[in-house]
């Protein structure tokens, strides 16, 4: 089924207590064009049961609103799916 929790602020998978905040997902809105198994439009909004505490490890994501980006190369990073 769909994810029930989010973990944010996690920097080291071997030390999950350092800076990590865990919240329950109470509502999710997936992108209307997302289709499995495609990875396109793999993004969603989630409503959490409690606000997150913003700090050095937890910041808002700023999304570009201009569809004409002047940059030709992008880099994305993350842990990816480590388990489910």
From TrEMBL:
GO biological process: proteolysis
Single annotated GO MF: serine-type endopeptidase activity
Domain named Peptidase S1: residues: 4-83
Top-level taxon of the source organism: Eukaryota
A Pfam family this chain is assigned to: Trypsin
InterPro entries assigned to the protein according to its UniProt record, in alphabetical order: Peptidase_S1_PA, Peptidase_S1_PA_chymotrypsin, Trypsin_dom
Coiled coil (UniProt feature): none
PANTHER family: GH06673P-RELATED, SERINE PROTEASE-RELATED
Protein name: Peptidase S1 domain-containing protein
């Amino acid at each position: 089924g769909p994810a029930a929790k989010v973990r944010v602020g996690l920097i080291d998978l071997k030390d999950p207590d350092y800076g990590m905040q865990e919240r329950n997902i109470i509502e999710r809105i997936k992108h209307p064009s997302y289709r499995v198994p495609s990875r396109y439009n793999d993004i969603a909004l989630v409503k959490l049961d409690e606000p997150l505490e913003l700090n050095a490890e937890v910041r808002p994501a700023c999304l570009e609103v201009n569809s004409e980006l002047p940059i030709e190369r992008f880099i994305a990073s993350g842990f990816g799916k480590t388990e489910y």
